[in-house]
Amino acid sequence: MTGENSNLPLVFDFIDRKTEVFCELADRVWATPETCYMETQSAAAHREMLEAQGFRITDNVAGIPTALIGEAGEGGPVIAFLGEYDALAGLSQAAGVSHVEPLTAGANGHGCGHNLLGSGSLLAATALKDWLEKTGTPGRVRYYGCPAEEGGAAKAFMVREGAFKDVDIAISWHPSNSPACSARPRLPIAASISSSKVVPPMRRRYRNLAAARSMRRADECRCQLYA
Ligand SMILES: [Zn+2]
How many angstroms separate the alpha carbon of residue 114 from the centre of ligand 1? Predict the structure, then answer.
């Protein structure tokens, strides 16, 4: 993968060139922690970045004011990167320290790292956009700005309204205290990809998991809904 025919050096170069501005985006979202469907400033910050990077923007996805999509490229497969930017209630925290230090006791905070999640996904989408342009490769890359991951299930509504119906692959990640990689599908999105042969059983399982998830405690912030 790292030989002379690898795409990685070029892609990593695109990432390195823009890392600083995307770290600033993550810091901006960290500084304005907003919860469940109220991520007005966070979504606006992501929209500004999409615009600055030259994406075509769709606002108000599935009728949700803080959901948006940025798309770039023409033809080819549709590659989706999923971003989130919602915070959690009661997790106000100073940045850069490893002990509990609320900025405002009881206020919202990004204890789950979604300020990183959204910005990192958007940087990945941007690097792929730049690569498609540089190499003249057909393909569309999309950034999905998904609100209300912490209990609001916005992606389920986005799926229901067909926002993922022509997506060939959806890629997501989550901050953690150790590196790991998984090819397991995230159910709401996988269930929306019409070409999947495993859609019926996954849909059944999603219904079960969605019911279980509704009972999840607010401070349990690891990724959910995995098969
Ligand atoms: Zn999370």
Answer: 6
